[in-house]
Specification:
By secondary structure, this protein is an alpha/beta fold. Among the domains are: 74 residues, Dna Ligase, domain 1; 151 residues, 2-Layer Sandwich (Nucleotidyltransferase, domain 5). Helices cover 34% and strands 31% of the residues. It is built from twelve helices and 21 strands. A six-stranded mixed sheet has the order 12-7-1-2-3-20, with helices on both faces. It has a five-stranded mixed sheet with strand order 15-14-13-18-19, sandwiched between helices. It has a four-stranded antiparallel sheet with strand order 8-11-9-10. The longest helix is centred in the C-terminal third of the chain and has 24 residues. The protein is globular, with a radius of gyration of 23 Å.
């Protein structure tokens, strides 16, 4: 899809990001424009104030249009949260004649059989990701051109609540944009910030958002996803409550002085802030860091329990990659290594051109949405419906019209 502009929306609990990009001939993502607008209409990925969400989407769209020089009419949208459900489907088909090798038609028949397994009526299928192929009981990486009597496919289905999808579709429509399809956000973030070698070695990605943190585990393909019900806003709330200061002041303290593991020589440094009584107060950096570290440690402990609960969680040679706004907190990777006893690094987007903002882990999800949408070569829910009257490429090409 090189050269075809794509638009994505990352609708989060603290902000909406709209990003316009295209894939270059060398497969790098070129960022054409970015829009960023604060959003207070969601709580932990659930819409609680529709007009505010509509306004935030509209603000991000207008800013992206100005910076990219385009008129946006449609976009791919990221989804995350507790309404995302994964489950495994398996199907087995007979191969007609061992004299003929397995071909693409046989593989498609096996995938179609897996797709016919009943899904929840109130859920939409976002993705189906192949976990394994088996030919006559033997695991294979690729069944094409092999001989056998039976082909089995195991696929991971990812579904989202139809209610959530419909709500966001309405919000986007009110803001003047159509949703082409939904993409799962942690999967998208991994496509931007995790290398192919790390996928094969085994890696987990933790996208630390404002309201929640989303975990995705890969060993080759995606193996597991989970939502952790804490994010950056919880660290801010902790500061606000303990210091008896406003959430706005607490957020500023976190951004300006937030360090989870400050150097020894800075522990006694006095950090100034204003209390709700409008008095000038001070707190040692060591105490400020301890308040923040307590909640961040809890998030990592959730990650540890989740990894311990699945077989692939113990096979992560590439460790954990951190993305999202919460990954910007000083010392977060070092604290993660101490608690999880594995390599932990920040996940800035890879292989991107232009827009310095896109090199920040905060925007890994938006860049990943661009890459995932560009590389996608099968039907997704909204695209599939549009494909009844137009091709997938037609759907993409009409997402923008240039001034």
């Amino acid at each position: 899809m090189a050269g075809s502009p794509i638009v994505v929306l990352d609708i989060g609990a603290s902000k909406v990001v709209c990003m316009v990009g295209e894939v270059q001939a060398d497969e790098k993502i070129k960022i054409l424009g970015v829009g960023n607008c604060p959003c207070t209409g969601l709580r932990r990925n659930v819409v609680i104030d529709m007009p505010k969400v509509v306004g935030a989407i509209g603000g991000a769209l207008r800013e992206a249009e100005r910076s990219a020089g385009v008129k946006i009419t449609g976009a791919f949208v990221g989804l995350a949260g507790e309404d995302i459900i994964t489950h495994t489907n398996r199907s087995t088909i007979a191969i007609s004649g061992v004299s003929n090798p397995i071909d693409e038609e046989d593989v498609q028949r096996a995938m179609t059989a897996a797709e016919q397994i009943p899904e929840q009526s109130d859920a939409r299928v976002l993705h189906r990701i192949v976990q394994s192929y088996t030919v006559d009981g033997e695991l294979v990486q690729n069944p094409l051109w092999l001989h056998g009597h039976k082909l089995e496919v195991e696929a991971l289905s990812i579904t989202a609540s139809s209610h959530i999808c419909s709500t966001l579709e309405r919000a986007a429509r009110e803001a003047g944009v159509d949703i082409a399809s939904f993409i799962m956000e942690p999967v998208a973030a991994a496509s931007a910030a995790v290398s192919q070698d790390e996928h094969e070695m085994g890696v987990a990605l933790l996208d630390i958002g404002a309201g929640t943190s989303d975990l995705a585990v890969f060993h080759g393909p995606l193996r597991h996803v989970a939502e952790i019900p804490f994010g950056g806003d919880d660290l801010t709330k902790d500061l606000s409550m303990v210091l008896n200061t406003s959430p706005r002041e607490a957020e500023q303290l976190k951004r300006e002085y937030g360090q989870l593991l400050p150097p020894q020589e800075q522990l006694e440094k006095a950090v100034p802030y204003r209390s709700t009584a409008n008095r000038e107060e001070q707190i040692p950096l060591e105490q400020l860091s301890a308040i923040l570290a307590a909640r961040q440690q809890e998030i990592f402990e959730f990650v540890q329990r989740e990894l311990d609960s699945i077989p692939h969680g113990r096979m992560l040679a590439a460790g954990l990659v951190l993305t999202g706004g919460g990954a910007q907190l000083g010392g977060v990777a070092q604290l993660g290594e101490q608690i999880l006893d594995m390599p932990v690094r920040l996940g800035a987007p890879l292989e991107t051109i232009g827009a310095d903002v896109a090199q920040n882990p905060t925007f890994a999800t938006a860049v990943g949405l661009l890459r995932f949408a560009a590389e996608f070569d099968g039907p997704m829910e909204a695209v599939q419906e549009a494909g009844r009257s137009e091709s997938f490429m037609d759907k993409i090409s009409r997402l923008l019209s240039f001034f």
